[in-house]
Design brief:
The protein is of the alpha/beta class and 616 residues long. 42% of the residues lie in helices and 17% in strands.
């Protein structure tokens, strides 16, 4: 998976001053969690590249930065992720005269650039973020995968650019200012994931499906992939068969690794389907799938259905593990683990921002930490709900009719608490409702309507598009940051662009042909699943119901009240916090718990990163 970083400066020789090497080393070191196996830097006159490696394929031969000499000067690459079709590309390139010294996909990508230039991006199938310094033209080329699975950021300077897998790599340079404006805070609180936005002022994301080139003439962005509207001509039976065919191929490709791999198993349709398919494929080679799930102490015995989750996960996890014959392990967490301030600090450092997801971030991190002791690669069911239409609000009449993001409409109770925790003056300045509406209008403006598409199908196309281009990117970023904080590579088969394109263009009537959510996925995988899971209603990522967790949140948040000068009170309404921490914690509402988690995240983020807040 790895972590990448770099610095391009057209007005200086980066080899001339030891301080430049020190800067490159410091930027690279911030990525140590992403790449615990190896470290390297490469310097040219106007470019410094840094890499931290998590060795997955060709363990002895895939070291980076990787350089390739040409008659007109070297090419050098730093690469994060996996290219799943690299063996086919390697064969094609070999037929064109290329010679390889390693078995790594990184070398294939570098040769692909030498052969096809920036157009090589269209040939890649995978999850990736990489940068190539082309000394033949003094040009930096940055490319990100189609769905935005791997993070990638850059920061323009007076004479070039800084870049990195995460903001922390860029912020390690003195050229990058640690400033957050109102727009940055809007992005933190709105949960709409504006494309290109990076929270930090002056910093940008390389957008999914784009190539960003940097030369002396400036920066240029071109798009090599977008989610396009196309006519779907397959009927129900053919569609189900094609989805199954794609899933078989995708899983086969994503099981390739030279290190131990496993699956994340929640007992839901998505992760269970991948686990079952992987188990069958590995079973033909005499191997068993390792599977892991997360649970909370006493959760199954004391589970209480709520508006988000109707059943605990554990019984379904056991059904799948037994049905597919996996080597399964439950990672059971307790409230002390989840509320531990040190765990929260680790989560904030991993995410570079105060996401406010509380125990759902902490539990994911702790799950991955436990898995990393036994596996290096994990397959996840992430994004299946966005692809196949699994969330409850896909079926909510108000959300369907609304002219805003459906997840915003469906979680208005949480949004109300979001406004309540904010300092009143800041809340007014942020105008989050207006920001969200502008973001929605911008998001839907570029969607193409199919000729003859009914009003209802058009609305459902828009909802699907919003999930695949906005909502899922929050979740993919979360999954990447929590996994890479412990050096675990998490692969997301449902984000294969072939599957995304095909299912996106299937009409909603076909996606729900059996009257339920995710009909195409259920139909394609029913025969490999236990009946209990094939018929299970969608249940989101689990969250602890233990009231002692809320008590610990209150205790932790209460510690900030004596410090009236803490910068968190430039964001959080102090009176709200005083009321929220009063009492025992046994009666805390879900909305107040959300607010406490957000407050604690913000306070730690401000302590660790010390951003300069420009709130006017």
């Amino acid at each position: 998976m790895c972590g990448i970083t770099g610095w391009v400066s057209f007005s200086r020789d980066l080899r001339a001053d030891p301080a430049h090497q020190a800067t490159a080393d410091a930027m690279t070191e911030t990525m140590s969690c992403r790449g615990p196996d190896d470290s390297g830097t490469w310097l040219a006159r106007h470019a410094a590249l840094g890499h931290r490696r998590l060795a997955i394929i060709d363990l002895p031969g895939g070291r980076q930065p990787m350089a390739l000499d040409t008659p007109d000067g070297p090419l050098a690459i730093v690469y994060s992720g996996e290219t799943y079709n690299y063996t086919e590309l390697r064969s094609e390139l070999a037929g064109r005269g290329h010679r390889f010294g390693t078995d790594s996909d990184t070398e294939v990508v570098l040769h692909a650039y030498l052969e096809w230039g920036e157009a090589m991006a269209e040939r890649l199938n995978g999850m990736y973020a990489f940068a190539i310094w082309d000394s033949r033209e003094d040009k930096l080329v940055m490319i990100r995968d189609r769905m935005g699975i791997k993070p990638f950021y850059y920061y323009e300077t007076a004479d070039g650019v800084l870049f990195g897998s995460e903001p922390k790599a860029i912020l390690a340079s003195s050229l990058a200012e640690r400033t957050v404006t109102l727009d940055g805070l809007r992005e933190l609180f709105a949960f709409v994931k504006t494309p290109g936005h990076a929270v930090w002022d002056g910093m940008r994301e390389v957008e999914p499906g784009t190539v960003v080139t940097v030369t002396r003439a400036g920066l240029r962005t071109t798009r090599y992939w977008s989610l396009e509207t196309r006519e779907h001509t397959d009927g129900q039976e053919a569609s189900v068969a094609h989805v199954r065919e794609l899933l078989e191929d995708i899983t086969r490709r994503q099981l390739v690794a030279d290190v131990p791999r496993c699956t994340l198993l929640s007992g839901g349709l998505d992760s269970s389907a991948l686990t079952a398919i992987a188990a069958r494929q590995l079973g033909t080679r005499g191997e068993k799938v390792r599977s892991f799930s997360v649970d909370f102490a006493g959760q199954e015995e004391n589970f209480v259905p709520d508006q988000m989750r109707g059943t605990p996960d554990s019984p379904y996890v056991r059904d799948v593990a037994k049905h597919s014959g996996t080597e399964h392990r439950d990672i059971v967490l307790n409230p002390d683990d989840l509320a531990d301030p040190e765990v929260r600090k680790t989560v904030i450092r991993a995410r570079d921002m105060a996401a406010g997801l509380g125990d759902m971030d902490a539990s994911l991190y702790l799950l991955f930490k436990a898995i990393r002791g036994e596996s290096t690669v994990a397959l996840s069911g992430e994004s299946a709900d966005e692809v196949f239409g699994g969330y409850a609000w896909f079926f909510d009449e108000e959300a369907r009719k609304g002219q805003t993001f459906p997840w915003i409409s469906a979680t208005s109770h949480v949004m109300g608490e979001r406004d309540a925790i904010l300092d009143p003056g800041l809340a007014s300045a942020l105008n989050l409702d207006g920001y969200i509406q502008d973001s929605y209008d911008s998001a839907v403006a570029g969607i193409e309507r199919l000729d003859g598409e009914s009003g209802f199908e058009w609305q459902m196309r828009k909802i699907s598009y919003l999930h695949l281009t906005r909502f899922v990117r929050n979740l993919l970023d979360r999954k990447d940051r929590m996994s890479m904080a412990v050096g675990l590579e998490v692969r997301v088969p449902f984000c294969d662009h072939r599957l995304v394109e095909y299912v996106y263009n299937a009409p909603w009537s076909l996606k729900t042909y059996d009257g339920r959510e995710k009909s195409l996925l259920r139909g394609a995988t029913r025969e490999v699943l236990p009946e209990s899971v094939a018929n299970r209603v969608k249940s989101p990522y689990p969250s602890t119901q233990d009231p002692s967790y809320a008590v610990k949140l209150r205790d932790n948040a209460r510690e900030y009240l004596p410090d009236s000068g803490h910068p968190v009170f430039s964001i959080v309404n102090r009176k709200w916090l005083e009321n929220a921490v009063a009492g025992t914690g046994e009666d805390i509402t879900q909305e107040s718990r959300f607010g406490l988690e957000r407050t604690l995240d913000l306070a730690l983020w401000l302590d660790i990163y010390k951003p300069v807040l420009k709130l006017s």
